[in-house]
Amino acid sequence: MRVAIAGAGAVGRSIAGELLENGHEILLIDKAPTAISVERVPQAEWLLADACEITSLDEAALQRCNVVIAATGDDKVNLVVSLLAKTEYGVPRVVARVNNPKNEWLFNEAWGVDVAVSTPRLMSALVEEAVSVGDLVRLLRFSHGDANLVELTLPEESALAGTQVGDVEWPEDTSLVTIIRGTRVLTPTRDDSLEAGDELLFVAAQAREEQLEDLLSVRREDSAS
């Protein structure tokens, strides 16, 4: 898979390193000569250019990329890169870094963004995920379909503890994608049972999140009495 990363700072280089280890072809783009540190990621291609300029993206052959990651420290730049990647070059997957949480609302399909990653939001979500039981935690937002990756740790008193996955009437536009049970990562089947303490990961429409949380957190009758 060919991936272009706009922004060769610490974040961009770190992403590049991870993707290279997984066998992907990486191009790092940055307009600052001081950011071009080929020795730090020698396996990657490097391009000294302004990723907001069509001529630069032509030189980068962006149309050959499967993924573009806008990873600069400037939200305006990340939005422009995302829009150009999607509308001018038809890149199938565009991931954009959100630096200022106040700008998060802009990072959507209208700007060519498929996945927006907000570091402050992600950090707060990970803190919530570590300490919350019975509360739905939003981990990641997907622009297409207005869907989110959400997590909930099933509480001891949940009425669904001991219930098979296939017997649960899940809300519409909701999919249980993973059960984390201790050190195990399970791909759920209809016959798997939900257990108290399970970390459940869903892809769910934002409009269904409250309904999903209510379903998972409802108490057994004997616990409520």
Would you give an account of this structure?
With 225 residues, this protein is an alpha/beta fold. Helix content is 25%, strand content 27%. The protein has helices at 10-21, 54-59, 75-87, 119-131, 209-217, 221-224, and strands at 2-6, 25-30, 45-48, 67-70, 93-98, 115-118, 137-142, 147-153, 174-181, 184-186, 199-205. The protein has an eleven-stranded mixed β-sheet with strand order 3-2-1-4-5-6-7-8-11-9-10, sandwiched between helices. Pfam families: TrkA_C, TrkA_N.
Observed structural traits:
11 strands, 225 residues, alpha/beta, transport, eleven-stranded mixed beta sheet, potassium transport
Task: Please give the structural blueprint.
Layout: E1 2-6, H1 10-21, E2 25-30, E3 45-48, H2 54-59, E4 67-70, H3 75-87, E5 93-98, E6 115-118, H4 119-131, E7 137-142, E8 147-153, E9 174-181, E10 184-186, E11 199-205, H5 209-217, H6 221-224
Parallel strand pairs: 1-2, 1-4, 2-3, 4-5, 5-6
Antiparallel strand pairs: 6-7, 7-8, 8-11, 9-10, 9-11
Looking at how many chains there are and whether they match, the oligomeric state comes to single chain
Number of strands: 11
Profile the largest sheet.
Answer: 11 strands, mixed
What is the count of DSSP helices, taking H or I runs of 4+ residues? 6
Strand order, main sheet: write it out: 3-2-1-4-5-6-7-8-11-9-10
Work out the radius of gyration.
21 Å
Instruction: Tell me the β content.
Output: 25-35%
Structural class: alpha/beta
Mean pLDDT: 87
Distance between the termini: 56 Å
Helix content: 25-40%
Low-pLDDT parts are 125-131
Order of helices and strands: EHEEHEHEEHEEEEEHH
The outline comes out as elongated
Organism: Streptomyces bullii
InterPro entries: K_uptake_TrkA, NAD(P)-bd_dom_sf, RCK_C, RCK_C_sf, RCK_N, Trk_Ktr_HKT_K-transport
Domain RCK C-terminal: 137-218
Keywords: Ion channel, Ion transport, NAD, Potassium, Potassium transport, Transport
